[in-house]
Amino acid sequence: MSVGAIDTWGRLDRRDRLAVTPRFRRDMLQSLPPRRPLIAHGLGRSYGDVATLEDGVHLRTEDLDRIMSFDPQTGVLRAEAGISLSAVLQLVVPHGWFLPTTPGSRFVTLGGAVANDVHGKNHHQAGTFGSHIRAIGLSRTNGKEYVLSPDHEAGLFAATVGGLGLTGLISWVEIQLVAVDSSFLDVETLAFENLEEFFEIAAASEEGFEHTVSWIDCLGKGERAGRGIFSRANWCTDKKYQAHDDRSVMLMPFEAPSFILNGVSVKAFNIAYRAAQMLKLGRHRTHYAPFFYPLDGIGSWNKLYGPKGFYQYQCVTPKEAGITPVRRMLGEIAAARQGSFLAVLKTFGSKVSPGLLSFPREGVTLALDFPNKGKRTLDLFERLDRIVAEVGGRLYPAKDARMPPALFRAGYPRIDEFLAYRDEGIDSDFARRIFT
Questions:
Q1: Where are the domains of the chain?
Q2: Secondary structure class of 260 (helix, strand, coil)
Q3: Are 226 and 327 contacting, i.e. CB atoms less than 8 angstroms apart?
Q4: 48, 59, 152, 156: which has the fewest C-beta neighbours closer than 10 Å?
Q5: Domain at 67-180: CATH code
Q6: Burial of 278 by CB count in 10 Å (0-12 exposed, 13-18 middle, 19+ buried)?
């Protein structure tokens, strides 16, 4: 048992917390103090409070990172929940395999990918991470052990996928990888001048391109409102396999001063970023690392937002709501002059996520980072919340640090079904904020 710093990626709540770091799966529950609630904590890439617990015990999974089995012929991998997606890729890429879908950082644990049912640039074809899980090993705090799958203990499986670590301790995960013909992608970059053009390009790209994503200038007004850069890609077929190298990651050595994070600097960044991306229009070949994980090349990039930390606001609005809610949200953000350095806009496909609390649904998702400006930022979020709620949208718990309970309940209609599967010995700051 130790006391040390356990932080959120948004760096909004930095303090020392009680933690245990078991070396083996069999020790996960044996080393815990009695009658203390706990939460599993991986690599700390959740932006908000889903993996922190005031006055509780954080079970750190950093040593539970072993490969249990990998079949290079079938692409079936089983590994302990604490292994990073980065380590998985370094093993499987040379054999011609890749993750079925991947979030925007490879420094995420396998267990965290399951608990948040992460999604990637290929959601319109692959769905979420949970769609590719073959089995889950789950330890409940009452001492019971389960092996879950879509066909065995299906209710508890659905609650665990996207269940934010609240149904038990995920000890291992078995997934089906996907075969790829290269570790490089053929990428096409296009510019769009407004939201109408974005939706046209996105619709035209869904069948012919496995991976799609766009950056959007969230401070654009008038004719520039909704302009951005659209990237779409497929795997190359050259049979060249080169795994990434984490030794090339550069560290952010200091916190950025708060005074440089203002409307003027964000606007200047957006202009400069668009200009740089315009030079890349057309087709080019790129390795998977910079395409899927552009920010992973800068270690501790969250320090760029200064000592007060930052929020990420990610929502999804349903397809039937169309363009209007996105336009309204961008209007509120531009009027507040609190735009994001990197705003991401993407469409989700129709494949239903397997988890009771999975975030993606068919529609469009907007994700933005906001430096913490206190009440000004929170007031802006309330205005964005109203837009999301009016159309029946939802926010992403893995990115959230302040969502109102009413918005969560409205956006996740299967919450009562989920609560029946909660592990009574597990809690989190997010759960206390939302469920009580």
A1: 67-180, 184-402
A2: helix
A3: yes
A4: 152
A5: 3.30.465.10
A6: exposed
CA dihedral for 95, 97, 102, 108, sign (positive or negative): negative
The CB density around residue 291, as the number of other CB atoms within 10 Å, is 16
Do 187 and 382 meet the contact criterion of CB atoms below 8 Å apart? no
- The structure tokens listed for 133 are 């899980």
**pLDDT by residue, tens only, the chain of 436 residues:** 566 668 888 999 878 888 899 999 988 887 676 778 999 999 999 999 999 999 899 999 999 999 999 999 999 999 999 999 999 999 999 999 999 999 999 999 999 999 999 999 999 999 999 999 999 999 999 999 999 999 999 999 999 999 999 999 999 999 999 999 999 999 999 999 999 999 999 999 999 999 999 999 887 777 677 899 999 999 999 999 999 998 867 665 556 655 555 555 555 565 666 666 776 789 999 999 999 999 898 888 888 888 899 999 999 999 999 999 999 999 999 888 877 777 899 999 999 999 999 999 999 999 999 999 999 999 999 999 999 999 999 999 999 999 999 999 999 999 999 999 999 999 999 999 999 8
CA separation, residue 228 to residues 56, 146, 215, 271, 342 (Å):
44, 46, 5, 10, 11
Buried/exposed 53-87: b ≥16 CB within 10 Å, e otherwise: beebbbbbbbebbeeeebeeeebbbbbbbbbbbbb
